[in-house]
Amino acid sequence: MMASFFDQFASPSFLGVPLIAIAIVLPWTLFPTPSSRWLNNRLITLQTWFINRFTNQLLLPLSTGGHKWALLFASLMVFLITINMLGLLPYTFTPTTQLSLNMGFAMPLWLATVIIGMRNQPTVALGHLLPEGTPIPLIPVLIIIETISLFIRPLALGVRLTANLTAGHLLIQLIATAVFVLLPMMPTVAILTAAVLFLLTLLEVAVAMIQAYVFVLLLSLYLQENV
Hints:
Layout: H1 2-5, E1 13-14, E2 17-18, H2 20-30, H3 42-59, H4 70-86, H5 99-120, H6 122-127, H7 139-185, H8 187-224
Antiparallel strand pairs: 1-2
Helix pairs in contact: 2-4, 3-4, 4-8, 5-7, 5-8, 7-8
Membrane topology: Multi-pass membrane protein
Family: Belongs to the ATPase A chain family.
Keywords: ATP synthesis, CF(0), Hydrogen ion transport, Ion transport, Membrane, Mitochondrion, Mitochondrion inner membrane, Transmembrane, Transmembrane helix, Transport
């Protein structure tokens, strides 16, 4: 039984071909296509309003040079939210529960921010490794600690997204299993447990959106240090 709880995180395959690529591409087909008409439908209007609000909020602390990343950040945010939300549907697969996929998003984008900082302002970028006013005996130790913390950033991005989604899916499956087990024996307790499951599902919907926002927000903060 315990092994079956983790089967939902295994990458599905058909005839030996992994289907994770389809799970990644599918969300893009669900987005409405903007039209050239003056008046759009409610869905496109809502989508445009959301992207505009998110972009303004995200790029507010960034300088003008960081505004070039607006399209990338907005696309990544919508993509992650869509994948996370679709993963909450029954009999679906959530690609963002795979650490390899999240690291594939985090590592190149983090490396791009570091390269931009080293190219545009190398003195300021290297200055982040040593806080101002550090005592001379602590300089070597702090440089090592700050360097390690710098290289841990992409790992933290990927692990945070993977762990939160994986924990939520496991908790939902555990409580749903408890509801089915308790229903024949103690219907009242099963109903109360189902109510907890409903509230937990609502919480997971919020977590799916918040974790996508946190992922992109941290990337924007890393970019802010280097532009």
